[in-house]
Specification:
four-stranded parallel sheet; 14 helices; 47% helix; binds zinc ion
Length: 340
């Protein structure tokens, strides 16, 4: 009896150290976008699985026993946060019986910690407002700047869990950020000005002025150059999934098909949306693949707008094989539809 007890204690002490050094760090992320970023930053030092697949509604994922099994063996759990996973995360972590990934432990990373947030409610959140998240809109990954921030948070946490691999994680992080910056601003401009400087100006709203003054406007490439002609263009979206993308690329949401976030479209609300679409001259209705096309098609038929079905997560459509190709896909779908 005594022997068993001692053996158990010894084993418990040994196991975390053994997993960190012997094999790869096992990461479980709630979403595929976090998986994509964690895989890039962790490289060959990690193995990553995601709970969600990328094409379901990210608010509603079933807490299946297989997810608990996956979480049981995890060294690190990464969530989007801002209550996106409120319906299933606790069930999975509890069911996993893995105390190393509980909230507040080093094995639990809330990726929202340092991101830029939008739509943080200023008044008390009540049910009547729909599915409003008290800490802000959780769909923040569609702003490339937030993906850059998330990648840094993941690299920091991986270095803490596996300090001997710090250099590799930092190198991978720098490579991801460079690739993202080049996709955003174009390689020529990143080479001349530096990605960090470009983001700083983009945030201050001084980038255009700077490029014009230095006659560098022609060097602007990437997503920003492709989206530039669409600045101020009004679109309709189904759910409030696009706020961060719309904000970064200066589009405007004229209306949403959902009367309140998470509340399905109603006939009365859709009539208002159609009116709005006509007076505001909306040409594009953006629809996440997880939602029914019915409301979007109806509004499109009555107003002449076109429906653009587009993934909001890696894996949501076949072209979106990782985070960067997801944003490639969104940029190309929207710009194609809006310039038609
Ligand atoms: Zn949402």
């Amino acid at each position: 009896m005594k022997y068993t007890k001692i053996l158990c204690t010894v084993l418990t002490l040994l196991v975390p150290a053994a997993t960190a050094t012997a094999g790869k760090l096992r990461i479980v992320t709630t979403t595929t976008d976090l998986k994509s970023i964690a895989k890039t930053v962790g490289g060959e030092k990690v193995s990553v699985s995601s709970i969600a697949t990328g094409y379901e509604n990210p608010h509603y994922v079933q807490a299946k026993p297989s997810f608990m099994m996956l979480a049981r063996k995890a060294d690190l759990w990464i969530r989007v946060g801002l209550e996106l996973e409120i319906g299933y995360e606790e069930l999975i972590i509890d069911g996993s019986r893995n105390s190393g990934i509980r909230i507040g432990t080093p094995g639990h990373l809330d990726a929202s910690e340092k991101v830029l947030r939008l739509e943080v409610p200023k008044t008390k959140v009540t049910r009547e407002l729909g599915d409003i998240h008290p800490q802000g809109n959780p769909h923040y990954w569609l702003d490339p700047l937030n993906a850059r921030i998330v990648a840094a948070s993941i690299a920091g946490r991986l270095s803490k869990l596996s300090p001997e691999n710090r250099q590799a994680f930092e190198k991978n992080l720098a490579a991801f950020q460079k690739a993202l910056d080049e996709r955003m601003f174009g390689a020529a401009l990143v080479k001349k000005i530096g990605g960090g400087n470009l983001w700083a100006m983009e945030l201050k709203g001084t980038l255009n002025e700077y490029l014009t003054a230095r006659k560098l406007t022609g060097d602007l490439g990437g997503w920003l150059a492709r989206m530039r002609p669409l600045k101020g263009r009004k679109i309709i979206t189904h759910h409030r999934s696009w706020s961060y993308f719309v904000n970064r690329f200066a589009l405007l949401v004229a209306a949403e098909l959902e009367p309140k976030p998470g509340v399905p479209p109603s006939g009365a609300h859709l009539l208002k949306v159609m009116k709005r679409a006509k007076t505001e001259n909306v040409g594009v209705i953006l629809l996440e693949p997880a939602y029914s096309r019915k409301a979007a098609d109806l509004v499109a038929r009555k107003t002449g707008a076109s429906v653009v079905v587009c993934a909001i997560s890696t894996g949501g459509q076949k072209e979106a094989t990782d985070y960067l190709t997801l944003i490639d896909l969104i940029v190309s779908r929207i710009s194609k539809a809006a310039t038609k």
